[in-house]
Amino acid sequence: MNEKRKGTALRLLGLILKGNGLRFTGVLISIFVSAGASVGASVFLESLIDDYIAPLLLEASPVFTGLLRALGMMACLYAAGILCSFLYNWLMVSISQRCLKQIRDQMFSHMQSLPIRYFDTHPHGDVMSVYTNDVDTLRQMISQSIPQAISSIMSIVVVFCAMVKISLILTATVLLCVGCMLVIVRHIAGRSSTYFVKQQASLGALNGYIEEMVEGQKVVKVFCHEEKAKEGFDRLNDQLFESAKNANKYANILMPAMNNLGNLQYVIIAIVGGVAALNGTGLTLGAIAAFLQLSKSFTQPISQISQQLNSIIMALAGAERVFTLIDEESEQDDGYVTLVNAKEENGELVETQERTGVWAWKHPHSDGTITYTKLTGDVRFYDVDFAYEEGKTILHNITLYAKPGQKLAFVGSTGAGKTTITNLINRFYDIADGKIRYDDININKIKKSDLRRSLGIVLQDTNLFTGTVRENIRYGRLDATDQEVEEAAKLANADEFIRRLPDGYDTMLTDNGSNLSQGQRQLIAIARAAVADPPVMILDEATSSIDTRTESLVQKGMDRLMHGRTVFVIAHRLSTVRNSDAIMVLDHGRIIERGDHESLIQEHGIYYQLYTGAFEME
User: Per the domain annotation, does 183 fall within a domain?
Assistant: First the structure.
């Protein structure tokens, strides 16, 4: 086992023991009693044969009272073993489920702290595979493999002591046979472990591909790529088949090989024991019978450990993927400026607990003083550069300002950098160079959660969650009342269609709102942003999925929503940005034109070409 695998095993053991110390102690005691009872019954076989059965064969009128009493004692030993076996398995189920709950809690909690960059670079299906397949391998290991392995080890130790007590010659014979078994086990298990690790990785890749195909099924059918999709699936499925076949091939060989070697050992011990008894070494028929039973009890745990070894290796491979997710670096946040409710007293802003509709930035300083700056929505970029990957700059020297209440629009071809700019405002990504100031505060000093709370965002891709329409709108502000939710829906012109739904605002949405049209889903997303009532709005092609008739209704609601707020708009329909205070035309991450609609039209530049082209398309 390499160092990384050892570290994973120790870390997993720590999680198992955390909060389960008493239960695990109970498991160890139960396993020890169970193993002792099993060995005790085997050792008692010698006395049963030599002291009870053999003498009865020589008596003309045998009395079976003593034999029956001995059989009763033997039955009690087996009963104790069965009871303890049931107890430790029951305790391990409790321990395993507690441990898995802790692991899932850790994974999900940590996942919420990961940066957007992580989800951009990891297939969602592969992440889901960690929660399902990898965690399930841990369940099997903790609830089955670990107690089985502990039980087997204890049985080996106790049985070995009993065998030494009966006969050193036969014990040496058993050890020689077991040595040969272990050489074979090591060879087979070493082969299978490599493939079990590959199997887990292949399973994650296959799950990721399946999820992509399920989400993109309409695209697959539209472009008639069913056969191409099958080819991609077959390729990944073949990889999983090869690794799983090889892993299980060696794993399945192991148990039959061990059983047959155990049978061969049984024969060898019988021969050696018979020869030893005939040579007057003092071995009795009962001792040989007991030793044969113990030899089975000695090799069977070794076979079980060998069998569980594959499950443990596969589980450790899954644990590595689980811990890799948990150990992913969280989104860094060094901000210390927070957003608080405020009110004016004697011309100055003071912090308050109740919601006043007035927000302020609470800015602690190194000298111990605290200043409050009213949240107005003044956003400014100064010579900002940005790169998703080091050395590949996406944005170059971006300088712009949006005064409170102004509407800024970004236009340009796909990949020009429009969405990237808005992602920098909410700090989904951090800039490489330059500064972004929000109400004259460097946004790096603002806590990310507070910064994002001050922004309302409507994305092009709408995400609705399983729940009612009301709950999905309230997602924008969890403490919003029913009346505020409905007011937000009216503001977005969503109220009318919502009331026509079967249960109105209490209509259940599932599968990302698949029972609604794309336009209706987008209206709910706009209402969600409206209920948050932020001073700054980011609209990333928010009306792109809405038809022209619906757009005219939405635009009125959007105008009401944008009134008095700083707004950043990304739109593919240039008619929606005509009334913007400033329009930024981007090309390859640079602002090449800026101005209002009239001035840009007069320049006859790129915006003029885009705008007139848009009219031609209409």
Answer: yes
DSSP state of 85: H
HEC states along 219-274? HHHHCCCHHHHHHHHHHHHHHHHHHHHHHHHHHHHHHHHHHHHHHHHHHHHHHHHH
Helix ranges (DSSP H) in 112-167: 116-121, 124-129, 135-140, 146-166
Is 481 found in the same domain as 591?
yes
C-alpha distances in angstroms, 617 versus 416, 551, 586, 614? 21, 17, 21, 5
> Using CA atoms, how far apart are residues 433 and 439, in angstroms rounded to an integer?
19
Determine the Cα–Cα distance for residues 606 and 618; give it in Å rounded to an integer: 18
Question: Whole-model pTM above 0.85?
Answer: no
pLDDT value, residue 615: 38
> pLDDT tens digits for 353-368?
888 778 899 999 888 8
Q: Is residue 356 domain-shared with residue 454, that is, in the same domain?
A: no
Q: How far is CA 256 from the centre of its chain?
A: 37
Do 370 and 386 fall within a single domain? no
Instruction: Classify residue 589 by its DSSP letter.
Output: T
Could you tell me the two tokens for 442? 């460097």
The three-class DSSP label of residue 566 is strand
The per-type count for the chain, helices as H runs and strands as E runs, is: 21, 16
Q: Write out the two tokens for 335.
A: 């901000």
306 lies in the same domain as 388: no
- Claim to verify: residue 189 and residue 286 sit in the same structural domain: yes
Extract the tokens encoding 304.
Answer: 């079980």
Query: Sign of torsion, CA 13 19 22 23?
Result: negative
**419/362 same-domain check:** no
Give the whole-angstrom CA distance, residue 538 versus residue 565: 10
Which of 155-164, 335-344, 544-553 has maximum average pLDDT? 335-344
Please give the Cα distance from 306 to 323 (Å, whole number): 25
62 belongs to a structural domain: no
The verdict on 282 and 388 lying in the same domain is no
Q: Is 2 left (phi over 0), alpha (psi -120 to 50) or beta?
A: beta
pLDDT digits (tens, 9 = 90+) for 417-468: 888 888 888 888 888 889 999 999 999 999 988 898 888 888 777 788 888 9
Do 389 and 459 belong together in one domain?
A: yes
Q: Is the C-alpha dihedral spanning 350, 353, 356, 362 positive or negative? A: positive
Which residues fall within 8 angstroms of residue 63, CB to CB, at 6 or more apart? 56
What's the N-to-C CA distance of the chain in angstroms?
Answer: 67
* Pairing mode of beta strands 566-570, 379-389: unpaired
